[in-house]
Amino acid sequence: MATCCTSLPLGLLVLSLLCVATADVRVWGIRAYGLYGDPWGPPDPYVKVYCGHAFGGMTDFRRDNANPSWSAQFSFPSGRPGDVLRLEVWDKDLMNDDHLGTCITTVQRGSLSLSCSIGNGRLELRYEL
């Protein structure tokens, strides 16, 4: 019985450290301004979202829109401070999609806003850990 009681605090400590080590990284409020597409028209942009080594998914594309916004939210349950958060902006085409730019930041605790240069335009987003 004494072994059980002395192991319990150690077990709680280990469990609490595991909970602190990883948390949910949530990304939302993605919008872009001034994106350039092909020479014959505005882009059909979409965004791919990564955190650490995990691919979180991608937004829908917005047809003929140089200033799109997306309502999509992305969640990374095993995110940690120091992970790399990467958002790639693409222009959807019939054959091969064009890469317009990438926004990269290091994940920090809290709720943060981020603004990145993407070619001649900008990408804005919010994330929290």
Report helical residue fraction. 10-25%
Structural class: alpha+beta
General shape: elongated
CATH class designation:
Mainly Beta
Known CATH architecture: Sandwich
Q: How far apart are the first and last residues' alpha carbons, in Å? A: 40 Å
Largest sheet: 4 strands, antiparallel
| CATH fold type | Immunoglobulin-like
Q: In terms of per-residue confidence, which ranges show pLDDT below 50 for 5 or more consecutive residues?
A: none
The number of helical segments is: 1
How many structural domains in the coordinates? 1
CATH 4th-level superfamily = C2 domain
Instruction: Sketch the topology as an H/E string, one letter per element.
Output: HEEEEEEEE
Question: Mean pLDDT, nearest integer?
Answer: 89
Rg calculated over all Cα atoms: 20 Å
- Strand proportion, as a percent range, falls in over 45%
Task: Write a structural description.
This protein has a four-stranded antiparallel beta sheet with strand order 4-1-8-7. It has 129 residues and is of the alpha+beta class. The termini are far apart. It is built from one helix and eight strands, in the order αββββββββ. The protein is elongated and about 65 Å long. The mean pLDDT is 89.
Keywords:
129 residues, 8 strands, Immunoglobulin-like, four-stranded antiparallel sheet
